[in-house]
What does this fold into?
Amino acid sequence: MGKRAVQKAVEEVRDKIGARHGANRLVIHGWRYTAAVQLSDAGCSDAEIQAVTGHKTLEMVRKYRAQANQKKASKRAQLRREQKESET
It folds into this structure.
């Protein structure tokens, strides 16, 4: 199935569930980002992530990986801070 056919099928589903416009809008690009982050979290290489997401350049894959790593680091830091506060 080609990219355009997939996009059309997804748009039809979004229309049927009321998620194409308004407050409940689902954005396809968000799914691509989520896939990249989850693949990164699973330990996939940049090349593997690129193969799944279809990004043209590894630079974009690295951007998503960096964002995922930053979120994980932020969560770890906040947990440490909370642990430190509970010890005092």
In short: The mean pLDDT is 87. Residues 3-87 form one domain. The radius of gyration is 18 Å. The chain has one domain: 3-87.
